[in-house]
Amino acid sequence: MLHYIIQTVVFQLLFLLTYDLFLKKETFFNINRLYLLVTPILSLLIPLIKIDSVQQALPEAYTMTLPTIFLGEATGQTAPQSVQAFDWSWLAYAGMVISLLFFAFRLYKIWRLKKTGELYTFPNFKQVVVKEKELAFSFFDHIFLGAATFKKDHDHIIQHEMIHVKQKHSYDLLFFELLRIVFWFNPMIYVYQKRISELHEFIADSVMTKSVKKKQYCEHLLQEVFQTQNISFINQFFNHSLIKKRIVMLQKSKSKQIFKLKYLLLLPLVMVMMVYTSCTQEAIAQQEETVVEGKSTAAAKSDVMAKIEELRESIAAKGNMTEEEEKALTALFVLINKDGLESQYVDWVKDELDIPFGVIEEVPVFPGCEDATDKKKCFEQNISAFVGKNFDVKMASGLGLEGKQRIMVQFRIKADGTVSKIKARAPHPKLEDEATRVVSILPTMEPGKAKGKKVSVIYSLPIVFALE
Predict the structure, then answer these.
(1) 319 with 373, same domain?
(2) CA-based nearest residue to 277, from 15, 43, 4, 47
(3) In the chain, what's the furthest Cα-to-Cα distance?
(4) For the whole model, what pTM was predicted?
């Protein structure tokens, strides 16, 4: 979930940078409005989209690394346990509730203004005159004016706010307000809301100057000073921080149509994001070093030809092979054969096949997880609990070790569900022996499946052993 949130924030930042650098100063206001409404939604959807062709072009991971198990020793007593990550969900929900309360309070302020003001109904809008010194803003089809403002020449204010009403700008602001409630921790949403609010004023100003001279309209902006409500989802006629920007935009010449090509920047930007999200963590992880053997994947590949030559010479010198050697060679043949798992030899060598974890259709199932909604998560939790319960932490006493000791274990769940080919690496041989012992007594499981056939699956299990 955290990875998804980070991706969303980064994508929104890229969209906003593109807007500020290339699009913000153009007079294509309605297109910019669409851009600001669509791109935050795209940023939420793109991390969920995976391009199959990109995923297929990446090598599959052979080994599945399980979550790290932490074991500890305290005051002479053994206390094996699997440390769970801190659950931040309660904080996210608490923030949503607080944001919702603030939103409700701001709605209440508008409701109070409506109740305490004088309501005048017109064909296309409702005018509310409130007992405030000076005030001017719109919310949906309601235009709020302070009593002092109402006494002045306020026709141009009504015309300006009517543009907000007709173009339904309040819906845009309410949309971002709802995003702020759900993603209250995301600073990009607040920036988006500020950008759309600025754009609304540019739109209203551009429409107004079609019937009013720019010079006269700019004078109105400079002369009028209104008290504004600190509410993020209303369209305020006069916002002090926006005066300079609005006047600069009013003086700007209409953008040339050729500049609309700038919006094509969105296409490569979105494609790059989609390619990035399609590169899953599993695909990236396999480029790292193989933890048990101590060799990187790239280094292992460089030895392939040499090993094939050694194998050829060994077979030629020996003249015959044992059944185990024959099975290993047949398994290699199956993996490189075009028939793959459809080969007639699969059943004979199924326990020798190292099937990439990325193509496993059904993961191995720990006993008791058969009906679990998320079998993979249930498997991980049970492995952690099993190791934490059965690992003898007392045996580490007297080994001369201090602090955290990292143990790496690799094992295979065969096609019959049993565990085999256990390899362990640790700072001390006794820790390796104990890790091997615990993994060897894992219960028989339902094996993994690929293309409907039971296959063996390789797992890596990191264990961190803390000593006082």
Answers:
(1) no
(2) 47
(3) 109
(4) 0.56
Is 102 inside a domain boundary?
no
Query: What phi, psi does 402 have (nearest 5°)?
Result: -135, 155
Average pLDDT, the chain: 78
Tokens of 69: 């198990």
Examine the fold and report which residue of 315, 349, 383 is the final residue of a domain before the chain moves on. Answer: 349
| β-sheet bridge partners, residue 450 | 453
Nearest to 189 by CA among 198, 200, 178: 178
Q: Quote the number of domains for the chain.
A: 2
Half-sphere exposure of 301 (CA within 13 A, CB side): 7
Which of 137, 136, 139 minimizes the C-alpha distance to 169?
Answer: 139
Using one digit for the tens of pLDDT, what is the confidence trace for 422-464?
Answer: 999 888 888 899 999 999 999 999 988 877 778 888 888 898 8
333 and 407 both lie in a single domain: no
Question: Whose structure tokens read 């002369």?
Answer: 223
pLDDT tens digits for range 267-294: 888 888 887 776 644 444 444 434 444 4
Q: Phi first, then psi: what are they for 189, rounded to 5°?
A: -65, -40
Instruction: Give helix 266-278 / helix 2-18 axis angle, nearest 10°.
Output: 160
Same domain, 430 and 338: no
Residue carrying structure tokens 């993603």? 183
Tokens of 63: 């080994």
Residue ranges making up the domain that contains 324: 297-349
